[in-house]
Design goal:
mainly alpha; 68% helix
């Protein structure tokens, strides 16, 4: 039987595509990268607080996920594991201290100003990010060896920024003596924020600055007077 005039054959009907919902446009690559970096930074910040409070071994992947509203396994989309989180955190701390310390030294007009700028930078970091200082002091042994070597190298370079500035200010003092004084001063600056609860931050910063400066001048002996 011939088809009625105007009726479509089955093959013709099948050839007509069905309407489909419009696909959601993908976010630009730059926007996706920014979101990934923001999420990684969020995980690192949460991990710093947890590691400082409970220690590296007292925190699980599930704990990290819960702290940022993710399931534990979702953390693996951003980091290979808990050690990778700690490694990036400690390398990042060391890079940040060195980069900003170097920048301030370069901007300083003389050695005295450079040493003062370093003091103010480290005190500000210790008071505003005490959890990062705690993790750096306590958890380096839990970082894989390659990252540990990188952290140690960055730390040595940071110390040498201080020693160089102090050597210029106190040319008659052996560098070994100044280096020892710098390490001792770090012990003072890094530990105090955990127990300094009686003074407001500005007063604590002022006190730490005076004490750390006095320690460096004491190391210089007669040359610092």
């Amino acid at each position: 039987m011939a088809p009625r005039h105007g009726a479509a054959l089955p093959a013709e009907r099948a050839a007509t595509p069905a309407a489909t919902p419009a696909a959601t446009p993908a976010a630009p690559a730059g926007e996706r990268q920014a979101r990934r970096e923001s999420r990684r930074a969020e995980i690192l910040a949460a991990a710093a607080g947890l590691f400082a409070e409970r220690g590296f071994h007292g925190v699980s992947i599930d704990d990290l996920g819960a702290a940022v509203g993710l399931s534990g396994p979702a953390i693996y989309r951003h980091f290979p594991g808990k050690e990778a989180v700690l490694s990036e955190m400690l390398v990042g701390i060391s890079q940040r201290l060195l980069a900003e310390g170097s920048r301030r030294v370069i901007a300083a007009p003389d050695a005295a100003a450079a040493l003062d700028a370093l003091l103010r930078w480290h005190i500000d970091f210790a008071l505003t990010a005490p959890e990062l200082i705690s993790v750096q002091d306590r958890e380096l042994a839990n970082v894989p060896e390659p990252a540990r070597r990188q952290v140690r190298r960055l730390q040595r370079l940071y110390v040498e920024e201080w020693v160089t500035a102090a050597s210029e200010l106190f040319p008659g003092t052996p560098q070994s003596r100044l280096r020892t004084a710098v390490h001792a001063m770090f012990g003072l600056l890094n530990s105090t924020p955990h127990s300094a609860v009686e003074l407001p931050p500005a007063a604590t910063a002022q006190l730490l600055h005076a004490m750390a400066r006095a320690a460096l001048f004491a190391a210089a002996g007669d040359a610092g007077r």
